[in-house]
Amino acid sequence: MKPTATAVIPCFNHGRFVRAAVESCLGQVDACVDVVVIDDGSNDGTSPAACDALAGDRVRVIHQENRGLPAARNRGAKEATGEFVFFLDADDYIAPTFVSKLAAAIEGGMARGEKVSHAYCQETLTELGTGTWRVPAWDPLMLLITNLHPVTALIRREVFDEIGGFDESMRLGYEDWSFWITCSERGYRGERVPEPLFFWRRHSQITMVMEAVRRHDELFAAVVSRHSATYDAHAMEIVAKTNSMLRAFDCNWIDETGYPIPLQFLWSLRDGVVGVEYRLWRDPDRTYQLPPLADPRVAAAVMTAVEEQREFYESFAAVRIHRRIHRLLQSLPEPVYRAIKKMTGLVARLTGRKPEAANPIMTRVNADLPASSAEGLRA
């Protein structure tokens, strides 16, 4: 039996794109899909009529005053009739097998006895955007650190109703991230389909995603506030996970600017490389050239530069000794290793210094290095 789904397409001044979005939904294979278009107070003089022109047996059009994306999506979901519901922005589109493949993933997970709320797929960037977001597998802990996938996912409609939809006060962004966290809090999980079935059209230099990134600290604080009990319960796991990620990507090597040294090497490769201008959100007055890492030659150059810098640091005799001591300590039986670490911490507390400051080897390393590099080693 074919899965049934309702596509909810909010539209604010994107009338020139909305037909392609609707047609991608009506063109689904091995699935029965109807569409609800929400004209969210468009004021460009053309989008309301462009939406009305799409009305038909399988397409309903609703006009409302501008209330923002979360409210527009919730309004459309109230009109949903399918077993599943999904949300597609008016300037994006989906592959013909989006619904059938994601529905199969949900059904497969439930057949295994899992509590599945939704399924999601990879995202391909088009027009001004390039590349594919190869979304990670579902991970409840990682979800508390970063959003795992786009809002365009196939959701069981009864779960969406149970959650209560999107938080309509989160008009500036991250409402979908908050929704997925709520799903996780209630014991649900998402199923990943590692195929690019969703297409995000970047047609302007400024996008909603970019605006959300500019406000990341504010919006992330709002997410944490709404899920404070969950963040409190997993605080130490989050700290450990984020720290291990920083170390895995060498992002703990920072200097006085606060930016990771390997990334600064990447920015420095702008000379002789055709890149795109990238303005740091934290420091809008400074502009760098970010090379397109999709180019294998650029990626290779970045890796070479990072490895050369690593070799430079590792060339210090004190660093090599420090590494050998740590390897020796880690090879000891666990009780002995813990006792030594405990003793090191006790000495640090008695001397009123941080453990790394009490370590003569690290003191020597930091004395040998320039001030900016020493900060990277202490991180």
Which helices and strands occur, and which strands form pairs?
Elements lengths: L3 E8 L3 H12 L5 E9 L6 H6 L6 E6 L4 H10 L5 E4 L5 E2 L3 H14 L4 E12 L4 E2 L6 H4 L10 E3 H7 L11 H11 L3 E14 L5 H7 L1 H11 L1 H6 L1 H14 L12 H8 L7 E4 L7 E4 L5 H19 L2 H15 L2 H18 L3 H4 L1 H9 L2 H8 L1
Parallel strand pairs: 1-2, 1-4, 2-3, 6-9
Antiparallel strand pairs: 4-8, 5-9, 6-7, 6-8, 10-11
Helix pairs in contact: 14-17, 17-18
Overview of the molecule:
The structure is a single chain. This protein has 379 residues and is an alpha/beta fold. The protein has two domains: 4-230, Spore Coat Polysaccharide Biosynthesis Protein SpsA, Chain A (Alpha-Beta Complex), CATH 3.90.550.10; 233-378, no CATH class. 48% of the residues lie in helices and 18% in strands. It has 18 helices and eleven strands. The chain has helices spanning 15-26, 47-52, 69-78, 98-111, 140-143, 157-163, 175-185, 208-214, 216-226, 228-233, 235-248, 261-268, 296-314, 317-331, 334-351, 355-358, 360-368, 371-378, and strands spanning 4-11, 32-40, 59-64, 84-87, 93-94, 116-127, 132-133, 154-156, 189-202, 276-279, 287-290. The strands form two sheets. Strands 1, 2, 3, 4, 5, 6, 7, 8 and 9 form a nine-stranded mixed β-sheet that branches. Strands 10-11 form a two-stranded antiparallel ribbon. Strand 10 and strand 11 (287-290) form a beta hairpin. Helix 14 runs antiparallel to helix 17 (360-368) and helix 17 packs antiparallel against helix 18 (371-378). The longest helix is centred in the C-terminal third of the chain and has 19 residues, at 296-314. The protein is elongated and about 75 Å long. The termini are far apart. Residues 270-284, 286-294 and 353-379 have low confidence and may be disordered.
